[in-house]
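[agent] plan:
  1. take the single chain provided in the ticket
  2. run structure prediction with default settings
  3. attach structure tokens to the ticket
  4. add a short note for the reviewer (M.T.)
[agent] executing step 1
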Amino acid sequence: MKKIMFLNPPFSAKQLYGDLSEGGSELPPLGIALLAAITRKNGYETSILDAAALKLNYDKTVERILESSPDVLGITSTTLTIHNAADIARMVKEKDSRIKIVLGGPHITSCPSETMSYFSEFDVGVVGEGEITVLELFRCFKDGLDLGDCKGLVFRNNNTAVFTGRRDFVEDLDKLPLPAWDLLPDMAKYYQPAADSLNRFPATLLVTSRGCPGQCVFCENSMFGARMRGYSAEYIVNMIEHLQKNYGIRDIFFEDDNFFAFKRRTKDFCRMLKEKKIDITFSVMGRADMVNPEILRSLKEVGCWQVGFGCESGSQKILDNINKNIKVEQIERALKMSREAGLKIKGLFMIANFGETKETIEETISFIKRVPMDDFHINCFTPLPGTAAARLAAHYGRFDPDWRKANMISPDNFIPNGFTYEEVLRYHKKVYRVFYLRPRIILYYLSKMIKSKELFLKVFRGMLAFAKYTILKK
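[agent] step 2 finished; step 3 output follows
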């Protein structure tokens, strides 16, 4: 058993972003790229099929899998794409039952036993960080060893889901190899951040830390735990240099939950970029209560152009209800500091939260109008499996736990008390219009469009999608 294929299952931008899909992102699947690097390093013949990036349908995806004829097919999946993954697994099994199918990713980690009980198509699930687990699992397959002795797995025994327990988290991320970017489709052609996180081409995504100590009810942190661990500054700079040399990357979106958490690392990172005179632009994300003027100025000096904050709401009542553990005033202060440092600011929000009312939405609208944001995104509050929100949702509104409806772009799985489905959608569109249909924001996007042909096309498609969703579509 020497041949491994990792699969990002087919799904469309429409499935992820709905009517705003033209302005969405196409990002490399870093999780399976890292696992592929590890299996290849350990002697396995390894490949990656990113069916989503290649826009393959189910039949073409299965055809490509069968052509490769792997011994093991490892599929990654979120909650929204779990049925896609199961459909592919079933179709592969019908054609070649010899192939072992292993499921990994955030969904199986959040509800391992339920997933294995529901989907007979998967042979084994990898729960949590998979870098060590997959190697032990593949040895079990090869040598016929008992899966029950391998931590971090869930499998069926006599139609009963058996969970072998959590594996310890990887402590030193610097010991991990660079992701196998070379096994992915052409980085410059197939991947790019959304228009609101894009500065120049080619661009890509990096995640440089794991874990989050926050207790927000809408997050599920069993994948990486509550304690934060990060790559060193040296490792991050090495990744940037590798991406520049081999793929021509000029802009990076750091998708860490809180890039600012490692203050010493951030200082070292900025120093090394300056000393090496690396020409890179990048954007970061973080909590508003963990920034200071010094860090923001340092990031700006070495190429950071945008900072994103998970504001969630402009209502203190809502922030308390979702256990954000932050004050509206702290968010405003962080946005002001970022503006003074010369950075563009992106705010991330949610609507239809626990305890939401028309008055709290108006508080959010008022907040959006008065703070110095340049970019903006708003989701519909979505109680995902394994979160505190999923356990509490029935108390705050109408909750449909169907995994297919956990899309974050519409109130399909949760509608707060006092609202109808149509009312939530109307407010969702209204908040978008309030932010984007202002002269300052329109001029900002026009200035982005003249930077390059690629940016013009990306922003223009996003504008069309915005108009269709918020103005033209009833």
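[agent] step 4 note for reviewer: The first strand starts at residue 3 and ends at 8.
[agent] ticket updated
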